[in-house]
Amino acid sequence: MTLNYLDLDVAALPAAATPAGTGDELDVVLRRLAPFEVISFDIFETLLRREGVFRPIDLFLTIGEKAGPLLGLSAAEFARLRMRGERDARCALEARHGHEVALAEMYGRMNALLPTQGRPSVSQAALAEAQRLEQEIELEHLRPVPSVEPIYHWAVNAGKRVVLVSDFYSSADFINKALARNGYEGHERLFVSCDVDHTKHHGDLYAHVCEEMGVTPRQIAHVGDNPWSDGSRALQSGITHLRIANPAGRLVGRWRIDWRSPSPQPSSAVFAGVADDLFGSGIAPREPEDLPVLQRVGREALGPLLFGLAGWLHEEAQANETPVLHFCSRDGLIMKRAFDLFRGRFGTKTDSRYLMVSRQAIYRARAVSEPEAAAALFAQNWARLTPADALARWGLDPQEFEVEIRAAGFSSPQDVVAIGDRAGAGRFAKLFEACRTALQAANQAHADLFADYLTQEGVIGAQAVTLVDIGWHGSLQKGLGEVLCARGWRGHLAGRYLGLFLDRAALSGFDAAGYLFSLDGTPRAQALRKSPSLVELLHTAGHGSTAGYRRDGDGIVAVCEERADEERQHTEAIGPIQEAALSFVEEMLANPRVGPGALDPADAFRGLDRLLGRPSPDEVEVIGRLRIAANYGATATSTALTDRSPEGYRLWNT
């Protein structure tokens, strides 16, 4: 908020009466406005804003849904023609030496342009009805700007001469109706550019206001959001300007949004919500860095992503008549929570279940059904592995096999073998052969429990199952499919993911799809490769990875790894990010104008893309400290996102 008037001695201003419960910003504003006899307000984006709409042109798509058929146009065609009609009408102003156009002129231009779209011109009655619908929809969306509303009421109650000044193409009758619907009453005059053919943009409307009100410019303080028409032009006229924050333009740059095209719902609502979060509005502007990092990451990066993914899953489930979505641990828990919020708002016949599975659980079951693959699965190593850990994660007590460990060539059960160590891999092969019988027995018991668990959770026994996971290569779906096939299951297994790094050949005959991308090499896939580890961490649940299963009464429950460092990290960082993200999803779903359609994945990805590729220093400092383990098991080591991985690459290319 800035009050641009060089001669203003702020310290000497008298205190103004402030409404109860207002903050410091409001108190400062009222103190600065107190000396002025006339308080002038801009209307749109100052007193009123279009709720859940990022930019005014976005509303043309909503208007087009109702008004488009009157002109023989789709919503998108209507929006484009509406923008062109306004542009052409404004270009014609020069010919008649005017300053403002009226809504009827814009629609007249649209009618003249219809033949260029392969449509016949329509009747004047149809044009009039389309204009009526536009104004009706505008009225439905207009709401007070919360931080500016009390300034208006203070000015009226303080006995100030309140005038409203707007560059707009609809008449004063329409604007007065919008103001009255939102509690703005008591102003002395309303000046609308299309009624008087003077504009703030050209600067002549301010002189017209002074003349009509019988005051000098120094007696007026003007409140408005536009830097040029409300700011520079007012100052050039000698009028003090109180700048109101309009966050849309700044998000366009931060998120690289195409400013030339209207954004459909729900993209427009998401953009509007994030813009308010990051940049504030009204008399309370802020910088993104004013938001705590964890809250910022949750609401800007993860929130829109979860909202979009949930909408896509809902849409997919309805189209395919999917009875149940099985969200796979651990990344699937936050996805399930977002989907359940979406399901609660829009309703669906699709249930959601949380399936406790992991690489470890699948590998052990596959070792039973695929003996030829067992040795390789046993020695699977993503960073560093000890013989004690290899045995323990497959259900054996290392202390009972010290003889076999040493016979295989290890110096001790804690002997560390790094990834890529061929000699170490050979020792693991010998250890596997020495313990094969015991491993087979332990894995058989595990495989039986796993099968019973899958039956309990409605997987075995179903004709078709759809898994939901974070994705990348679809290995969990493939591995689980092999386990199910070995158990005689002949159903159809599908997978729905955040994204997949696959080629077309790998997708052939494999029922898998990603929300953001299904093919590697696409622009979003390349952008996400800057740190898949960060994306995984943002989705990780607070419990450990599934190590196995046990019977508990009549049911079977998962046994999870216990890693105090991971639990602490989730409590202190990842959990707060996820809660902020879910809060964002809830706010989007609370908007009655947001429908069940899926958010464009390009728009859902914008906040995460910015975090992955253009993080701020405080985000690098806080988020970069998060650690992720490449392996599983007790000795799995974790690496900070800004450190080098054991293989020598960065987990986050900051």
UniProtKB/TrEMBL annotation:
<dbReference type="InterPro" id="IPR023214">
    <property type="entry name" value="HAD_sf"/>
</dbReference>
<dbReference type="InterPro" id="IPR036412">
    <property type="entry name" value="HAD-like_sf"/>
</dbReference>
<dbReference type="InterPro" id="IPR006439">
    <property type="entry name" value="HAD-SF_hydro_IA"/>
</dbReference>
<dbReference type="Pfam" id="PF00702">
    <property type="entry name" value="Hydrolase"/>
</dbReference>
<protein>
    <submittedName>
        <fullName>Haloacid dehalogenase superfamily, subfamily IA, variant 1 with third motif having Dx(3-4)D or Dx(3-4)E</fullName>
    </submittedName>
</protein>
